[in-house]
Design goal:
- The complex is a heterodimer of chains A (about 90) and B (about 425).
- Chain A is mostly beta strands.
- Helices cover about 0% and strands about 65% of the residues of chain A.
- Chain A has one domain.
- The relative contact order of chain A is 0.27.
- The mean pLDDT of chain A is about 90.
- Chain B has about 425 residues and is α+β, with helices and mostly antiparallel strands.
- Helix content of chain B is about 35%, strand content about 20%.
- In chain B, the strands form 3 sheets. Chain B has a 5-stranded mixed beta sheet with strand order 5-6-1-7-8. Chain B has a 4-stranded antiparallel beta sheet with strand order 9-12-10-11, with helices on one face.
- The model of chain B has no long low-confidence stretch (mean pLDDT about 85).
- Classes of the chains: A mainly beta (about 90), B alpha+beta (about 425).
- Chains A and B meet through β1 of A and α1 and α4 of B.
């Protein structure tokens, strides 16, 4: 996997316990057209607090151009930003 | 019952915090593995090295030297600006981990804490394992490394945490002083700094062991009470408590600033003094005190430093009074050379519940008190920029000067 650290637009679902589940996101790499990717499966969800900055890390699996790929997205609590971290 | 004190010190704190934060944000290079420094803004003339990475040490870059010099020593050096909010966040996260182990914590500065584990033998039978656990947890959860020093008092713990870096646990119990501490250079002792060290070298004291074997009477004669203090420290004698807060009875409040340009007219200098007085007097009123002595300090562009002080006839907490005295002092001492650095310091406090009037003084203290409390209240509620004096408009100067720009930033203190 390669580190991308790309800010993405996300549709997520928050349940009544406050747990956040990513559903699908939209991203653009360079000048390429926007891509919408549906998250098929969240494999691992964990919380990380490196440098005291809390991020929720999701390791997921989806179809990218008809190939299953593993990737990692992160949600930064302090800024409410979603990042596509590694693909 | 002997005490057990840990001193936890983050390794090159500012730099490793910045590095871990950048890695979390997806940056691929680790600042800790390349020659890099955290440095102030050169344009506003705060361009000195605040922290350096271990590879930068190999180029003989010193903390406190100018970024220009650092660049000469290592042309490829990476310079990153400081981010104080990040340091507060890292320090708070570290403190949160400590709180899971003991309630007795003294946050000595933003990157150093004393932890008291006295009388907890039943809870933590093996102190080395405990220290190892804390060190591992910080490394794993927060991503940066710490040194932990273990001893019976704060001084020895602090010396121990300084031994070999990074990511180590060291002990320095009284029976180890002779082998571990005495061979060290005398500069490594707490409270021996750039003023004391040359004086000690002059009388042929180069290591801490030399200091211990020196005649105490001569030290007392030469350094007064400080001689006794450093001699005690060299022997590992120190009994201070692990205090919950660093706050000690305040003896003075001061504020100073390095101005981003050389000031060569008294009008601008007065404005800088006013902006310093604003912060100083607001802190004075907040502490519910009045001051009796006002002093100012000036550093010219030739880096020569001088200061003057004046005792007041009436104790005051008024911004305007303190400003007037500062200007009076400044005008008396200033010789017209360009000024680089200005400071205002107030001392000799008394309570502010009442004040003694003077017959010869026609200053309206009551009226002034009302405006000060109104301004303070507005600033506390809406921020320090909410009300500013009109003379600061378009002047390019900050209306309230000094400080780090972060509230409650814990600064290092010279008393353990």
């Amino acid at each position: 996997m390669k580190i991308l650290a790309l800010p993405i637009e996300m549709v997520s679902y928050t349940d009544n316990k406050g747990s956040i589940k990513p559903i699908r996101f939209r991203m653009q790499i360079g000048d390429e057209p926007m891509q919408v990717i549906k998250i098929d499966k969240v494999i691992i969800k964990e919380t990380e607090k490196i440098a005291g900055n809390i991020m929720i890390v999701y390791k997921c699996q989806s179809l990218f151009d008809n190939v299953f790929k593993l990737f990692e997205i992160r949600y930064e609590i302090s800024t409410c930003k979603w990042i596509l971290f590694k693909v | 019952m002997s005490r057990l004190i840990f001193h936890v010190d983050a390794n090159s704190a500012y730099l490793s915090w910045e590095a871990t934060y950048r890695i979390q944000q997806g940056e691929q290079v680790d600042l800790r593995e390349i020659p890099s420094v955290v440095g102030g803004n050169e344009e506003s003339r705060h361009g000195i090295v605040l922290t350096k990475s271990i590879p930068a040490k190999k180029y003989n870059i010193q903390t406190g030297e100018t970024l220009h010099n650092a660049r000469i020593k290592c042309p490829d050096i990476v310079i990153v600006p400081p981010r104080y909010w990040l340091y507060m966040q890292c320090s708070a996260a570290m403190n949160k981990i400590f709180l899971e182990y003991t309630p007795n914590i003294q946050r000595f500065s933003v990157d150093e804490s004393f932890l008291d584990f006295s009388n907890m033998e039943n809870l933590y039978p093996d102190y080395l394992k405990l220290a190892g656990d804390i060190r591992e947890r910080i490394k794993k959860e927060l991503g940066f490394t710490v040194n932990i020093g273990i001893s019976n008092n704060k001084l020895l713990a602090k010396v121990a945490s300084d031994f070999k870096k990074p990511d180590r646990v060291h002990t320095l119990f009284p029976n180890e002083i002779k082998s571990k501490m005495w061979p060290l250079a005398v500069e490594d002792l707490f409270m021996v700094g750039r003023a004391t060290a040359p004086k000690l070298h002059n009388i042929n004291i180069n290591t801490i062991g030399d200091l211990v074997n020196y005649d105490l009477e001569i030290l007392k004669n030469k350094f007064k009470s400080h001689g006794q203090l450093i001699w005690n420290y060299a022997n590992g004698i120190e009994f201070s408590e692990v205090r919950k807060s660093n706050y000690i009875d305040m003896k003075g409040i001061g504020n100073s600033t390095t101005i981003s340009f050389d000031v060569d007219d008294s009008d601008t200098a007065h404005k800088v003094l006013l902006s310093l007085c604003e912060t100083v007097s607001m802190r004075l009123r907040d502490s519910q005190n009045c001051c009796n002595v006002v002093s100012i300090s000036i550093r010219g562009s030739d880096l020569i430093f001088y200061s003057r002080q004046k005792k007041l006839s009436v104790a005051t907490d008024s911004t305007r009074r303190i400003y007037e005295i500062s200007c009076y002092l400044f005008d008396n001492v200033w010789k017209g050379n360009p000024v680089r650095h200005l400071g205002v310091h107030i001392t000799d406090f008394c309570g502010n519940e009442f004040y003694q009037c003077s017959l010869l003084d026609n200053f309206n203290y009551e009226k002034d008190k009302r405006i000060n409390s109104a301004v303070d209240a507005i600033r506390l509620k809406y921020g320090s920029k909410a009300v500013v004096r009109s003379c600061f408009l378009h002047s390019g100067l900050s209306s309230m000067c000094g400080g780090i720009g972060e509230e409650d930033y814990p600064l290092m203190c010279s008393t353990l």
